[in-house]
Design a protein that fits this description.
Rossmann fold; globular; alpha+beta; 6-stranded mixed beta sheet; 5-stranded antiparallel beta sheet
């Protein structure tokens, strides 16, 4: 069984392993099995395996489980770090907030440690539960594609090499090696959608709706999604331009696309501009598109879209960046960077807003929507605007958005 599982995991890893490979370990059976299998795969290679655990602080036993993982990694001589989440205000969906925090914390850890890829212990059971939950929400092709074996987000490559493997096999493997795992008490809490889906799967299996079948559905939907994306890119190259960190779409060309392709293009633009890990829900994008048709302007996911003659502009919403200020040498809003000579001490990057636009008399020559310019960055020294290239205030510096047209189309394929 060990050799079979090792082959299954190795088949879902890059052919050439990076110098450092991360693994997220919660202490449960799935992630501990992944840790053990990766240790066997990396043994004797030039790849350093590095483990991370997130303590969400939501259960009394969470810190003890993180300590158990740390001790286990120490026995295996694997570098380990525990990250503690402390920023939750207690509002909203607990599991969703924890998931978003977990990915953000792990991504930050990976970037600090120069780890290009992080592996996750999601199994075939997790995939089946995800498909079932999304089916209950009326999801389309994207939603039913469920989790991908490989995904890029937050500047990190996320790998799920156990998606084709069942949890029972992993537990047999751990038992054979004498490795004890932790049981999360929330796995018995029917107030969570995932636990209810897990219970439902037990009832549906006699009808043939077992994890293997639902995972096959996800695979089929993923193939359909990829075909739709390829078609969109082929058609979109003729109607999309990327300018000043915004997406500009020919309206006639957009109208000529099938409804699903229009939705996918708008959704992709929103996700790319906002830097969000996930696109907005299909229903929200449909309402967004309808508002554009009716009133010519709409906002969604921290983005603003406006009709301007025969073009549709989608750009950052000013409200989403109004309070964002970074040092001049930092990435602003996750995508804008200053280049040129070293600016005066204390100079910062922040959005132009109304005050900044007043200091840009040449802004109209740029030919860009006013709301786009308001949300674009300038170089400030206190209340003095030094530079705002997008709005025509030139100086020795440039402020450019990372990623252009090719990067936008590449992002359409990244799920």
């Amino acid at each position: 069984m060990s050799a079979e599982l090792i082959r299954a995991v190795r088949d879902h890893l890059p052919s050439v392993l990076p110098g450092r490979l991360g693994v997220a370990v919660s202490g449960g059976s799935d992630s501990l099995a992944l840790l053990s299998l990766l240790q066997e795969i990396c043994a004797g290679s030039a790849t350093a395996l590095m483990a991370v655990t997130v303590d969400h602080g939501l259960r009394p036993g969470a810190s003890r489980e993180a300590a158990d993982v740390a001790a286990h990694c120490a026995r295996l001589n694997i570098a380990h770090e525990t990250l503690v989440w402390s920023g939750w205000d207690g509002q909203g969906n607990t599991q969703d907030a924890a998931r978003r925090a977990r990915y953000g914390l792990i991504a930050g850890w990976a970037q600090r440690e120069s780890i290009p890829a992080v592996t996750l212990g999601h199994t075939r059971n997790d995939q089946a539960e995800t498909v079932l939950m999304r089916l209950a929400r009326g999801a389309g092709v994207d939603g039913l594609s469920a989790m991908s074996a490989r995904r890029e987000a937050h500047g990190v490559v996320w790998l799920r090499p156990l998606l084709g493997t069942g949890r029972d096999r992993l537990r047999e493997y751990l038992s054979g090696k004498g490795i004890v795992w932790s049981e999360d008490p929330s796995n018995d809490d029917d107030s969570y959608d995932r636990i209810r889906a897990r219970r439902a799967l037990e009832l549906l299996s006699p009808l043939g709706l077992d994890p293997q079948v639902l995972c096959a559905v996800a695979d089929n939907m993923r193939s359909a999604r990829d075909a739709l994306d390829r078609h969109l890119i082929d058609k979109g190259r003729d109607i999309v331009a990327v300018c000043a960190g915004a997406v500009c779409i020919d309206r006639a060309g957009l109208s000529s696309l099938p409804a699903e392709s229009r939705r996918r293009l708008l959704s992709g633009a929103l996700r790319w501009i906002s830097g969000a890990a996930y696109a907005p829900r299909a229903s929200a994008v449909t309402a967004f598109a309808q508002a554009l048709e009716e009133v010519g302007s709409a906002t969604l996911a921290g983005c603003h879209a406006r009709r301007v003659k025969d073009r549709l502009w989608i750009f950052r919403e000013f409200r989403a960046v109004a309070g964002l200020e970074t040092s001049h040498d930092a990435l602003w809003d996750g995508r804008w960077r200053l280049s040129g000579p070293v600016p005066p001490e204390g100079a910062t990057l922040r959005a132009l807003g109304h005050a900044g636009l007043k200091d840009c008399p040449a802004r109209r020559t740029a030919g860009l929507p006013r709301d786009l310019l308001r949300a674009s960055p300038g170089l400030w020294l206190g209340e003095r605007l030094l530079c705002a290239p997008q709005a025509g205030l030139q100086a020795d510096w440039q402020i450019s958005a990372e990623g252009a047209r090719d990067a936008f189309f590449a992002a359409l394929l990244s799920h």
